[in-house]
Design brief:
mainly alpha
Amino acid sequence: MARQKSNTAKLQDRRDQIMDSVKTVHCKVVDLAEDLIEGTVTTGAKYQKVAVNAIKKSEPIIEKQVDLVFDSMEMFVDQVQSNSKRLQKLLGITKQVDMATERIGKMVKMVSGRVEEGIDEAEKTIKTTFRQGKKEAEKAVKTVKAEAKKVSKSVAREVKAAPKRKVGRPRKTTATK
């Protein structure tokens, strides 16, 4: 009889130790999941800021490149006009060159207008897209944090509310007689 009581007490102590270990592991897993979610949201926000900065900083570079292209086109036209006069006199093609120069000038003006309009439209579209993305990211962060809090609270309640089982007397069976 004394032996059964000591075995029961040892089993009860061991069971309590296991339950405590399971509770602590469970709480640590929940905390780790919360930290992981918060880290993911924080990292996503940082990446979004980096993307916004990259686009903002690339806008002046793109504008400079466009200006550079148009400046080179204008210089090319000027070179053709000034240096070709001698060649035109030698070959006798002054009328044809003048007509080609006019056409090229008109094309440059037309293309420059279209490119500038396209850049303005693209800039507006990019800005609105990033504003919408930022709003959506903020909403997602709020919902994820709220869900994480709900889950952690419910898990904490379940862990606290878990009933402790008591080990009773072992049943007598026909095999133990």
